[in-house]
Amino acid sequence: PDTQDWGSAGGGKRRRLSWRLMVTLSPGMTPPWELPDDKLVAECRFEAFVASGPGGQKRHKTNAAVRYTHLPTRVTAVETSSRSQRENKIYALRTLRHKLAMEFRRDVDPLTFRPPEWFAEYPALRMNPKNPLYPAMVAIVLDVLQAMQWSASGAAVTLGVSTGALMRFLFEDPPLWTRVNDVRVSLGMKPLVWRK
User: Fold this and answer.
1) d(CA 107, CA 29)
2) Is 16 helix (H, G, I), strand (E, B) or coil?
3) What is the β-pairing status of strands 65-70 and 44-49?
4) What is the pTM of this model?
5) Do 182 and 143 meet the contact criterion of CB atoms below 8 Å apart?
6) What is the DSSP letter of 104?
7) CA distance 141 to 154
8) Closest to 33 in 3D by CA, of 168, 134, 107
9) Which long-range contacts (C-beta less than 8 Å, at least 24 apart) are formed by 187-192?
10) What's the confidence (pLDDT) of residue 23?
C-alpha cells in the first residue's frame, strides 16, 4: 500500500496514513471480477488453514478456513465462517471478486455513458450481493462516481437512478460505503451521510 507521512512543522508526533490507490484498467482488459472461476483461481494463491475462535472441536481439527490472494494485485479474501472448506472457498471467492471490483476503475465519459442492458433488470440498484453480477454493479457505480468527481447526485443522474437509491446501495454495502467516504475525505470532501 502507498503511504503518506503527516507531521507538524514543530517536530511533533508524526502520524502515518496508509491506503490503497484504485488502479485504472487498460481498455480491452477483462476485469478480474468478471473472469470465470477457474481463470480467477489460476491467478490466485490458495491457502487452507485451521481457524481459531468459537466453533467446537470440529473447527479446530480441520483446515476449513481459506485464503485467496490475487497475485497480480495482492488483494486477499479470507473466509472462516463455515466448518466446510468447500463453502468457505465459495464465500472467499465471492469476497475476492467484490474487493477486486472496488480496487479497479475504468475510465467513463459521463456524456456518453450507458449502463449495460442487464442494469435495467435491477431498478433502483436493488441487487442481492450474492448475485454473480453484483461485483460488476459495484464497479460500474464506482467508475461513474469517479467520473463525476465523487458527487453522489451527479453519479445518480448518470446511472439513471435517484440519489436516494444510490445512497442506499452504497450504505447497504459497508466496505463500499467506507471506500467511497475514504476517497471523498482524501479529496477534501465531506463524507456521505445516510438518512433513511
Assistant:
1) 12
2) strand
3) antiparallel
4) 0.81
5) no
6) E
7) 11
8) 134
9) 187/149, 187/150, 189/150, 192/152, 192/167
10) 64
